[in-house]
């Protein structure tokens, strides 16, 4: 054998080596690969993840369109902000938030539950400290921290509260004598009181909405649901008379505000672009909006990208909700059903309120559009919530359909009766 040639005896070895490498490449992240990453990939609801990433991509485009407005308003004679200042910051939050979302989605369901409960305790403690050490921005004391590490505890508490409340209510199935409903009512009331002290009526409505949805799913009687509904209406009436900001905003919504009213400006911007919009960066009504990059980003989208784009975004949110509940059709774990329902109620309820405010169907609430509006605390908290949602909706798509999997009844006997034992 000379250099540059291969003997006939080496050909089978080379072919076997190539075949082995090909098999390794094909099996990586394949169904035969049982590594943790591969198991996560095949159990994950990839359609739901794709819908979430679609919202994030839309959000970056929308923040880029709204950033010049907020940069101009927050610039001073000494400091002039770059027109894309808020876009760059949001891009940074996205780079941090997406890995957090994926890491949380990899947690086993038991670990995800423990993580959410412990995080809820921490966020609840920070919420207690806000009235003492919190920072006041735009007349509301909602933030705590220093410099870059300033966070809004109420935002982080929402997804953790939903999971913790689901765990608490799931205990009722195991022991109906436990006073979990009374305990959940007291806990929700304390959170609502702390939020109203900031004041923050919008987040209070979200927490109460999560509690109400989980109460209905957990099997409360129609009489109790009616009592709770009347109590909620009474609470809104009380907020109208006791909460000056709510009084002003509800009056503007019911009786019409002046031409500079926030909701009126948002509605004009939303409808100003027609069906197809004025084009990216060509909107002018957005410069009159008070918080174009956060609360009223839906109106910026309507002006520059058109009402059809707004309809498409609403359909993406609807698709997420439908997809989540389709995943629950065969779910038997009571905690998983409640946790997923609570997280979905928080996510969908927040989106619904934000879009309704921009459409002049609801009083102004100062609430962001999930995964689209600008905001560090908001985006990171939503990333954690979406990560938990992805973790709880993970499932083996073939396990339930396998003929080799036996589903034992809950009241199965501990020992097999002798009369049905098969002996050789």
From TrEMBL:
It is an enzyme of class 2 (transferase). The chain crosses the membrane at residues 47-66, 86-108, 115-134, 154-171, 178-195, 201-217, 224-243, 305-326, 335-359, 371-392. It catalyses: [GlcNAc-(1->4)-Mur2Ac(oyl-L-Ala-gamma-D-Glu-L-Lys-D-Ala-D-Ala)](n)-di-trans,octa-cis-undecaprenyl diphosphate + beta-D-GlcNAc-(1->4)-Mur2Ac(oyl-L-Ala-gamma-D-Glu-L-Lys-D-Ala-D-Ala)-di-trans,octa-cis-undecaprenyl diphosphate = [GlcNAc-(1->4)-Mur2Ac(oyl-L-Ala-gamma-D-Glu-L-Lys-D-Ala-D-Ala)](n+1)-di-trans,octa-cis-undecaprenyl diphosphate + di-trans,octa-cis-undecaprenyl diphosphate + H(+). Keywords: Cell shape, Glycosyltransferase, Membrane, Peptidoglycan synthesis, Transferase, Transmembrane, Transmembrane helix. It is a multi-pass membrane protein. Its main location: membrane. The keyword Glycosyltransferase applies. It comes from the Bacteria. This is Probable peptidoglycan glycosyltransferase FtsW. Its EC number is 2.4.99.28. It holds the Pfam family FTSW_RODA_SPOVE. Belongs to the SEDS family. FtsW subfamily. InterPro entries: FtsW/RodA (IPR001182). It is found in: Membrane.
């Amino acid at each position: 054998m000379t250099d540059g040639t291969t003997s006939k005896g080496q050909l089978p070895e080379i072919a076997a080596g190539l075949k082995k490498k090909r098999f390794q490449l094909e099996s990586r992240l394949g169904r035969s690969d049982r590594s943790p990453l591969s198991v996560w990939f095949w159990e994950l609801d990839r359609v739901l993840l794709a819908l979430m990433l679609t919202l994030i991509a839309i959000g970056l485009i929308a923040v880029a369109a709204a950033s010049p407005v907020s940069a101009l308003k927050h610039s001073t004679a000494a400091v002039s902000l770059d027109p894309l200042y808020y876009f760059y910051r949001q891009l940074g939050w996205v780079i941090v938030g997406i890995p957090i979302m994926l890491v949380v989605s990899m947690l086993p369901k038991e670990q995800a539950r423990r993580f959410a409960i412990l995080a809820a305790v921490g966020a609840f403690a920070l919420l207690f400290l806000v009235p003492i050490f919190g920072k006041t921005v735009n007349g509301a004391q909602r933030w705590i921290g220093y410099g870059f590490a300033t966070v809004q505890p109420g935002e982080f508490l929402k997804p953790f509260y939903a999971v913790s409340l689901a765990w608490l209510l799931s205990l009722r199935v195991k022991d109906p004598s436990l006073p979990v409903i009374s305990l959940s009512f007291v806990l929700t009331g304390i959170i609502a009181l702390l939020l109203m002290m900031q004041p923050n009526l919008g987040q209070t409505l979200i927490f109460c909405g999560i509690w109400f949805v989980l109460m209905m799913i957990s099997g409360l009687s129609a009489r109790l649901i009616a009592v709770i509904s009347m109590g909620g209406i009474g609470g809104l009436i009380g907020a109208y008379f006791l909460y000056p900001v709510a009084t002003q905003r509800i009056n503007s919504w019911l009786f019409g505000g002046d031409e500079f009213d926030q909701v009126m400006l948002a509605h004009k911007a939303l409808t100003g672009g027609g069906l197809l919009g004025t084009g990216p960066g060509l909107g002018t009504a957005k410069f009159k909006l008070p918080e174009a990059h956060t609360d009223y980003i839906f109106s910026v989208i309507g002006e520059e990208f058109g009402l059809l784009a707004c309809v498409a975004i609403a359909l993406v949110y609807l698709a997420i909700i439908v997809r989540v509940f389709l995943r629950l059709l065969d779910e038997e774990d009571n905690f998983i059903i409640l946790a997923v329902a609570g997280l979905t109620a928080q996510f969908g309820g927040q989106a619904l309120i934000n879009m309704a405010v921009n459409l002049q169907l609801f009083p102004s609430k100062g609430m962001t559009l999930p995964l689209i509006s600008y905001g560090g605390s908001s985006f990171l908290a939503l990333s954690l919530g979406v990560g938990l949602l992805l973790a709880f909706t993970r499932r083996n798509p073939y396990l339930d359909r396998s003929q080799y999997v036996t589903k034992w009844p809950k009241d199965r006997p501990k020992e097999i009766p002798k009369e049905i034992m098969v002996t050789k």
